[in-house]
């Protein structure tokens, strides 16, 4: 399997390019609009055809590349049915399977950071978006966030994966690129070491995070698959 982890520094977003070596069919997980040329070059360089772009959720910190990829690479936009994004081509629910050549992608519904968060399991890897981060997790104070729901998602849908499963998050702000389920279960600062549901809810309530810098631009754009909307335009 072809695998490449890409990093967009402005929002510290990780994007993942995976492809079947035999059919040359590819997917991108969490593409960023501003990086479209990088993706197009990579696809061309490795002779890949992009079948799907998958968004783990409706992002508040960057604009998705889904629409541009649809236009330039002919891919289909995939995201969860609860996203409220009507321009999605495939709206997945928990347990949905996508096949790209020899690669099987399993969607696992992991709400709590948003109500449409989906993690994708491929072989011994899980792409967790902003649900589970390395030594942390997504915030729960915007976009229908709910700490109790996030705790349940992580415990029931992610921590139940084999300990050696490699965790590839949607972001990292300290340069770390991967973790494992076993490691996060043990030592994640918010959820590890047998953290209780009540303890986690209390901890999340007291984080006191700043208002997300790009949310007013990113959310309307991402609800339209990445079309930048002038939020100041008078109706
Ligand atoms: Fe997010």
Describe this structure in words.
The chain is an alpha/beta fold and 235 residues long. It has one domain: Ribonuclease Z/Hydroxyacylglutathione hydrolase-like (Metallo-beta-lactamase, Chain A), CATH 3.60.15.10. The chain is 23% helix and 27% strand. It contains 6 helices and 14 strands. It has helices spanning 36-45, 66-73, 147-158, 181-187, 197-205, 215-223, and strands at 2-8, 13-19, 25-29, 49-54, 76-80, 90-92, 97-100, 103-109, 118-122, 125-129, 132-133, 136-137, 166-169, 179-180. The chain has a 6-stranded mixed sheet with strand order 1-2-3-4-5-6, covered by helices on one side. Helix 2 (66-73) links the parallel strand 4 (49-54) and strand 5. The longest helix has 12 residues, at 147-158. The protein is globular, with a radius of gyration of 17 Å. Mean pLDDT is 94; it is low at 230-235. Bound molecules: fe (ii) ion. Residues 57, 59-60, 113, 130, 138 line the site of fe (ii) ion.
